[in-house]
Each structure stands twice: as structure tokens, then as C-alpha cells.
Here is the input.
Amino acid sequence: MLETFKTVGKPIAHDSAAKQVAGEALYIDDIRAPEGTLHAYCVLSRKAHARIVSIDLAAARAYPGVGAAISAADIPGKNEVGPIYKGEPFLAQGIVEYIGQPVVAIAASSIKIARAAAKLVRIVYEDLPPVLTIEEALAKEFYLAKPYQMKIGDAAAALAAAPHRLKGTFANGAQDHFYLEGQIALAVPQEGGEMAIWSSTQHPTEVQKMVAGALDLPANAVTCELRRMGGGFGGKETQPAIIACIAAVLAYTAKRPVKYRVDRDDDFMMTGKRHDFLVRYEVGYDDDGRLLALDISFAARGGHVADLTTSIVDRALFHTTNCYFVPHVTATGYACKTHTQSNTAFRGFGGPQGMLAAEHVVDRVARRLGKDPLALRQLNFFGQAPRDVTHYGQRVEDFVADKIVAELAADVGYAERRRAIDAFNASSPVLKKGLALTPVMFGVSFTAIQFNQAGALVHVYTDGSIALNHAGTEMGQGLHTKICQIVADEFAVPLETVRIAATNTGKVPNTSATAASAGSDLNGKAAQAAARTIKARIAQYLAGAAGLPESEVLFAGGQVQVGATSLPFKDAVQKAYNARIQLSATGFYRTPKIHFDRATAKGRPYYYFAYGAAYVEATIDTLTGEYAFDRAELLHDAGRSLNPAIDLGQVEGGFVQGMGWLTTEEIWFDASGRLRTHAPSTYKIPIARDLPRQFRARLWAAGENREESIHRSKAVGEPPLMLGNAAFFALQDAVAAAVPGREALLVAPATPERVLMTIAAAAP
Amino acid sequence: MSDTIRFLLGDQPVEIVDCDPNLTVLEWLRGPGGRCGTKEGCAEGDCGACTVVLAEPDPAGGLAYRSVNSCIQFVGTLDGTQLLTVEDLKQDGALHPVQQAMVEAHASQCGFCTPGFVMSLFKLYRDYDGPLPPSREILDRALGGNLCRCTGYRSILEAATRMFQSPRPDAFDAKRDATLAVLAKLARSSGLAYRDRFFAPTTIAELQALLGKHPAARILSGGTDLGLEVTKAHRSFETIIYLGRVAELAAIARSDSHLTVGAAATWTNATQALVAISPGLDEILARFAGPPIRNAGTVGGNIANASPIGDGPPIFLALDAEIELLGPAGTRRLKLADFFLDYRKTARAAGEIVARLHVPLPKAGALFAAYKVSKRHDDDISAVCGVFALEIADGKIAKVRAAFGGMAAIPKRAAAVEAALLGQVWSLETAKAAGAALEKDFAPIDDMRASAAYRLKVAANLLQRFWFETATQTDVRAVHYA
Here is the structure.
């Protein structure tokens, strides 16, 4: 029997793993920059809000070794990086609107010289009053866009009629991406004014577009390329355009290549984070805890410009009932303007904030009723019609959270663990334990429908080797590995036959950001289509030559079978070449079925939903507020996984990142609006010890996408982040146990301080 | 004194003659060294992406390995060592067992932290000779200085277990004698005087002469704080005197009455001796930064630095240590409590260095605990550090020292707390009363690590925890460092 070479569905190692462990994988800063490359450094605003009276660059420009020193006035084209709205400058234009905003950029022969020259820049400001908090922005109706609402039914009337009502506020903190590789771009001037950019970006097309605008060039004069990022998590969706535009304008001005590698602290100070939200709600429910009505508002700290904030707030609204059917919902979103970093995309894109609030509401209702939160969650799950409609009108056709939750609850012995933990708490004066089992239901597709498209470019060379390009970018998530698997399987050749090339806007144009978890769904289908085009051409030719129907040509086991004969793939390719058959093809994919009307806030924005559930046990120390996670069990639906090893890595990493967001990761501003957590010394992401003592993550064996996604897999980039919610609610459960009979509500992040102070505030 | 920095880069001898002495090892590697495998993640020694391993001859005639953060080490500190980076591990094109295990465990995603993890695991692979598989505690401690944002660590921990399934010895054992022989040739009989700006004396006499000649020189010990002045505050030092080659200054000795810790002893090297006299120090020393910092950072540096949030000062204050200062003319001793004058101001005069700490051995039966409270358990800076020592005689507290970090501009003993404890019966009520006295001792600040209210509350509660741990069997630790 022929070896099948099939790799789809197998735990194949990440295509860069062997290079990464040997230090051979190249990131932007590792590429040998051309001789004479200058290094960039920016002068950042020290004011949260001020008018720029004057900028004096003379001394900096005269400093030996400086190739260029620029402010907004020196930009040849547009000072614009706004992805949705216009008016979002990459260098401060007339005013500064946050501490950390780039005002002046300098390129010099070394970074040390650039920094020294930066000290000579004189900027005169005239202070303006800043708005620094969500509360203040709400009070002043200081918004980045008009508030937006999604509605179903009549929440006000249903609340009035509900047997029980509960009002409250909730909050979640911001989160820095802390990609290990900071923002970086290398701009290399080419002939005829063209510019080549190497950027650590999830969105090469946007970098291309914004750089072209900044240099007043058509898009075809700018290319953007990258092989890989050292982490992205959404932080490299829009923010890299800022870095690349600065590098490009410096390179244009100095007529030399310029590298802008942003120092970690500057990266924190300059770039946006996950939005912190203030949530206000009123919920109505019956004696059993069935949710009857929800009126909820989400106010996000948008920062100084909109960036993607409105779309992020939208996604919070979309996810505001998570897995739960609520017949009457009014959900309102406020994109607040503040004089702080412009918050941006981060894994989940508002979904986590919406879902966390939903879980807070359900958890609180359960505690009010003296019911187990899991039972209440299960009671409120989406179900059969009419309990299958979301507040934005999409019917939930693929609901499996009930099955996943039931399976996980049985696996962990939920009821027994509940009893054991209650018994522990009864006899432990200082330590208290808690548990939680929370579900995830995450909509997959860009809610801006036009982004749900992708292209690919496949070349087959006459030696039988295959080169693959697609619209997606690799940030560690294993996208390239998966797409190679898909293409190799199409041609039925060994995986090593397919080589992925760097993502390049010159190869595949008009790409969407690698975001919204959609990378494999979109690019996998596009690459498959390209491969199928080439296969069809080869098959058509071979069939014709043999006088057989095309159906008699089969690609299998590294061979091409034509009727009763068989020849190696590379011989088939050579024959096709000799017969002047085109061995290169593009592929394209657009997601079917989806639509959304923002005016009515109704439609089917999501092709499908991804599901998962997490069980977590926590122990808190009621003297210090410190805690540990004793156990976590994750069960996640990746459909028919394209690569279970890579998908499991996403599940585990997503959970820990979500846990970090809700626990130790605290973004803290001082009274002047200066971010004081701007490096790993002050901003604490999880470390090895934080992985729960007992930890098991699994892909749901029964998983299968009911939609025709690539090989019936499901997107797995963002959804697992929200498995981290269980960590937060396990702490909430333990906090509740510390002050029995009293309401002690945690807000996120649940730092040790917040745990202790929440208990203290509720204690008799 | 010689003026060339000489070391081994892998197996290759290297001489540095024309670099700025403020150049970091990472800058050298990625620039003149031509090796880009080692990454910069933060340039402050907190993320571990830049972790490299230094091999140096040990007193037993072997090679001692230590992982350090190359981002904040100056090139001059490489003199006489073998520098191993992620590029050195592959042998004849084959992955090292550490690397192979990382691939097999799917332990790299974006890969940017990976070289640092590989080097921390390599250090563990070289050193660990305990039972297999290693416990989670061993691995958590070994990886306590490396951050990964992608994997969630489960796969890295699996790799750390899996690597030991490969047969040892590895290629580095085979090359050990050859490496030792080359390092022996690099060994100096007298100190390094690189470009008359970076001095690495080898004897106290040389050091004293240098202190006399360059009273304004910056004293470099482990570099784990000083390095940040270059990488973060963008300063440049004209003259640096490095203490790391004065063997006598790194000595640790125990007599019948005292433990003497040389100022240049790294925290890693001092840990065993300190835990031996006060077992209650095990956890806090495991939580003191991460291994690459403890492998470079020194006890003396942590004291001289006088940070109000360092963990060393409260420990030594509670241990009632004396500090010995060394100047061009000789030494002097004073109580550690008299050393800290004001925010980052100490009794150290220009031209003086911290030379040793003299710690009286705790009395048998004395109660002792060192507590650190931080947002993250490992590799974090204390919001509050509380270290307590009690002696009880005739049922009453006869002696007490309660020292705190994070509560004032200097690390400080809490006089009112101590007064509230002295002469009392050691009870929960006493602990609470002492906690209530904290407000007389301290008016802490609000900052990004904690609010003033939390600091006061948790500091008071730590006294209760101390009572629970010393007087009852109650478990009061959410996390057990064991």
C-alpha cells in the first residue's frame, strides 16, 4: 500500500520549531540590515493633553550621526494610520493626547546617538485638561463614536415584570499584549521612490497602505514582508502601521534604510492594550434563576483615537449573553475617548469583556438565589426554538456548549468536588477554596463582513517542490504549518515538499489582518483552492494525453495515478510543464452565509460558533489575598482539528493568557495619566509556577464543524482565552466562602490586593 | 593588569579590544558577535529571552554553569569565562537533547522566548542530578526567570521532563577537559584593566588601590540593577570597577557565632548557607527575582543599592546583621540598621564598597519567618516584605526584630510593632495588636504594586500569619514552595 502522507489531523510539529530552538529562526531584527542602516528613536509626549506650541529640531538635526529628525510637519503624505476612522496620526499633529505619544522621530547611525540627539529636541506645550478615566468620559459624553445599541424584545418592560431584579456594575482591567518580540519595522528605500518594509505585523496590507499614504505613493510602490512575528495577540494588527510609517518617513527623509526597533518600555507607553471596560447592568430573572431580561451597557476606554474600538465594543455587545438565552436584551456600547494610549485589538477583541460580564451576572444571580452557579448556567443555555435566538437575530444552530459542559462536569466530578471544597472551607480558618466551571461560546468571522476573504498563491516547480504563499501571517499560532499540511494533502505529497514563503504584499494582495481567529479558515480554503486549480490542470492534461476521463486521474501517496499507470508526482509535474501547462495558481475564498446590518443590529455575523469549557479550583489566603490555582481542566471544541498539537497549544496558551488578564496583569496609571506598569518588572504576566498544579487540556473528541469549514475544523486562536474566566470565578467562589452570607463581588483583575480588599469590604 | 577582554564564545577564543565597556553582552552578541539567536525581550532582566549560560572553572576542578541575563551584563564580565548561547547547543547538525525535547513537546510557538528557555533548561540539564522525573517544584524554580506569552508553559514543563529521557552525558561532558584547559590559559594572575575604564581586580589589595585611584568609579557587582541604568536610563559610565573577580569578596564562611557572607557572593551561592541558618528563608530566596538574576546579582549589591523594595535588606535587618565596608584604607563595621539613611542614601562613603555581612547565628528555638507579598509569586518585586525574628523566654516575647520592605523610603525595622510585641505572650491577640501598631511605624505610598491601604493591612496580617505558622498547625499558604 502506498504511504498516504496525510498530515491533516495529525500532531505535526510547528514548521519553525527546529529553527526556533536552535536560534536560527529569523525575526525582523535578525535580518542583516543593509550597510548604512540608521536606527530610530522617538521623543514621546510627557503630557496627557496639550497643544504643541513649537518644536525645535535644529540641535538634533545638527548632532553628528543624525540622518533625519522629523515631526508631523515633515511627512510628505498623510499623517494617518486610522484603520476605520480618519484623523489618527502616527506623529502628534498640533496636539498631544496621551503620555507616550510619538511627537518627534530621529534616525541616527546608532541608537545611542539617536537617543542623545533626542535629548536636544525642544518642545513647548500648552497644557489642556485631560480626560483620564472611563467614568469621566461617560460623565462628559466624551466619545469616539456615537453609542451603539443591540436590542431584542423589550428589556424595560420585561425587567418591570420580572419577579427578581438586580442592578450592578462590573469592571475589567486592560491587558498589555506583551508579545516577546516588541514592535519593529525596517524601511529600505528602493529605486524610483519605492519603499520596501519589513514589519512585525499581523496586517501587512495595512502597513503597505498606510506607508504609501505617508509617502504619498500608490500602493504598488510599497511592499511589506515578514516571515514571522515573535507574538502578536492582536497587538500587531493596527499598531505596526505607526512604527512602519515612522521608519518609512525617516528613511525617505534620510535617503537611507531605517530600522525602528521599539524598546519594551516605549512599546508599553506608545501602543494600545486590551480595553478596560466599565459595565452597568440590570438583570431580571425568575425564582429558578431563568434570565428574563438584561439591560446592559459597556463603556470602553478607547484612548485618544478610535483605532478599532467601535468594532471591539460591538463584539462585546455580541457576546454579552455568552451561551445564554435571554429573551429581552438591550445592550449599549460606549466607545469612550480618554487621553491615554489608544486601546486596540487583543485576542478575543471585546468578546472576552462581553462574556466576562455575562458570567458575572449569571454568577451573581446564582449566589443571590443560593443556587450553584453551574446549575444556573446550564438552566439558561441556548436550546431549541424559541430559545435559540441571539439578541442580534442569529439563530444558534450549532450549540454544543451543553454537551461539553456536561462532559467536563462529569469528568471532574463536579458535585463531589463542590462538597469536598465546602467541607474544606468549613474547617480552614485562613485558606478558602473555590471552584468554577464556565462555558465559552465565541462567534467566528470578522463582523465587518468585507474582511472575510483571503487569497493564496501556489507554485509547483519542475522538481516537484511546491512554494506556498497566502494572505495570513505567522505569529506563533502555527498557521503556516496548518496551511502547508492542507496543501501537501491536496497534492498527496510529503509535508516537506511544501515550503512556506514569507508573507509579502507583492505576492498576495489586499489581505485582511490575520485576526478574528480566522487565519486557517480563510487562508486554508484559499490555499486549497489554488492547489486544486493546479491539480485540475495537471489532471486534465494527463487524462487527455492518456485518452481517459479526468476522474481517472488520482493524486495519492506522492504519485499521480492515470488509469492503471502511476507516475511520481514530480514526473507528472515535469510532463505537464513540457506540455506548457501552467503550474502556478492563485486561490481565493470568501466566507459564505454571513451578513450583518449595523443599522438594525441584526443579521448572521458569524459563520459558526466555537465552544469550550473550563473547570478551575483555587485557594485563596484570606490574610494576604494571595492565591493559587490548584487544578484546571479544559475541554475545547476545535472541530475536526487540523493539527491537534498546535490546537492544544492554542487552548493551553489562551487559557493562561486569559487567566493572566483576570488575575496578576494590572495596567496602572498614576493621577497624571502616566502608565506606570510599562515593563515586565511592573507588569506581571503568568510564569511557569502560575500554571495550575493539576492541569489538563483536551480537544473535544466529538468536535466537528457543521459548516463546511476547511476540513470541518474550527477556529481556535481566540476562543480559549475566555476559558480563563473559570479562574476568575473560582476566585470569586473562594472570596464568597470567606464572607459567608454576604455579597463580595470581585472585579477584574483579581490581584491579591483586590481579593483581600474585596473580602475586607464585605466582612462584618 | 591586562587590557584585553578574553573569553570563549562556545569553543572559539575571542578577544575584545575596542568596545565601549558599557556595551552589554547581548549587544555584543547581536552586533560584533554576529549571533542573533539570543533575543532582547525587555532589556531589564525580567523576561529571560536573552538568557545565556556562562561556564567557569569551579573550585572542585569542574566547570560550573550559570545562566545570566545577557541584556544587562557588561562585556567585561565575560573575561575568563566560556559564553554559551543557543547557537552552541547543536552538535554536528544534531539538536541537543534540550532542543529536541522542546520540539517534541511542541514547546515553541512564536519562538521568541525559546532561546532563553532552551538555555535555562540547558543549565538545568547540566546541573540536575536528583530523582527523575524532576518535580514540578524543581522545574518551576528552574524556569522562574523566563516568560512565555504563547504556550501557557505546560508544553515547556513537558519538554523539561522529556529532556532527561535522553542519555547523559552530552557533548559538553566530552569537551569538558578541553574547555577547562583553554579557560586555564585565560585565567589571570592579576586583574583586568580594559581601556582604563573597566577594571576587574582579582585581589583585595588591587581593589583597594583602584578604589583609592578612582573614587568616582561605579562599583559593579552582579550588574542586575546597574545594568538597567545603561539599558533603561541610557547612562554611560566612564569608569567601572567590577567586584566579580575578587574571589575573597565572594567567600561565605560560618563560625560558631556568625555567618559571614561576602558582598560579591551571588544570591544563588549564598542561598544554601542562609537557609542553613534560617530555614524560613527558602521560599523568599526562591522568589527573589529569577535564577538568571540570582546567578549574577549579589548580596552586597542588593544591600548597597538600598532599594526600599529589595528583599535582602529586611532579611538581614531581621537577622540583626552587621555590615562591613571596605575603603582604600581599610574596613569598618556598623549595624545594618544604621546603614540605610534615606531613600537610596546609605552610610557608604565615596571610594567605599560593601564588603561583607556578618550575621549572628540565630538562637536555637528562635522563631523566624520571611514573607514576601507580590502580585505574582515568582520573579516579582515585593509589594510588602516582612521578616520577623522572635525569641520567647518564660512564655513571653523576650527579643524581637520585625523588618519591612515596601513600607517606607528605606528598608526599616518597625519600632512600634516591636514594642507592641516585646514582653507579651505570643498569641493571635498579640499579633493583631502589633499589626495595629504598624500605622505608627509606616505611612506607605500608593503605587503600581499596591495601595497604601493594602500595604498596611497585609503587613499587619503577616504578623498573624507568623503566629499561625509558629503557634498552630494551620495551613496558611496558598502556595507551597515544596
In short: Chain B touches chain A through 86 residues (CB under 8 Å). DSSP finds 18 helices and 20 strands in chain B. The radius of gyration of chain B is 23 Å. The first helix of chain B runs from residue 25 to 30.
